[in-house]
Amino acid sequence: MEKILVSRCLLGHxxxxxxxxxxxxxxxxxxxxxxxxxxxxxxVAGGLPTPRAAAEISGGQxxxxxxxxxxxITTEGEDVSAQxxxxxxxxxxxxxxxxxxxxxxxxxxxxxxxxxxxxxxFSGVKVPGEGVTAALLKRHGVKVFSELELPxxxxxxxxxxxxxxxxxxxxxxxxxx
Length: 177
Ligand code: SF4
Description:
The protein is an alpha/beta fold. It has one domain (about 5-165). It has helices at about 25-35, 40-45, 60-65, 80-100, 130-140, 150-160, and strands at about 5, 35-40, 55-60, 70-75, 100-105, 115-120, 125-130, 145. It has a four-stranded parallel β-sheet with strand order 2-1-5-8, with helices on both faces. Strands 3-4 form a two-stranded antiparallel ribbon. A two-stranded antiparallel ribbon has the order 6-7. α4 runs parallel beside α5. About 40% of the residues are buried. Mean pLDDT is about 95; it is low at about 165-175.
């Protein structure tokens, strides 16, 4: 069965920076019932407390943080890039452990956002880009969706599950020479 990495806050876990959570989402509950959800909050896994100061990426996007060319800074001016990176690499470890190819991560987060993040000025302005965890997973071939794209994630899941049954996807016969 294909597993899916899911942001913990989307599962009702109160791990958001402000102590809140999102959901419930029927599709995620279905996948939980199926036993295919692997939950993770990268920021908590990276060692940050809940609640915690809000953070935004300053001077770039998640990819630049991974490359050491931008930083994640809190409203209190603390650089939490190391914790965000740690959480991202823990997500990658789970992806590898479970053979995950699809993730559903919270929209707009500096860790989990897959299409937009806040612009680093704490003024509520969103810009195209992705959070640190989303960027790392995308680099490693994971399709990253948000809670706003659950139908698209479901289609991708069906495509993944049908793929192994295709006519040319079985195990290769050993070559003989
Ligand atoms: Fe944790 Fe990601 Fe949710 Fe933020 S968006 S609380 S990092 S799971």
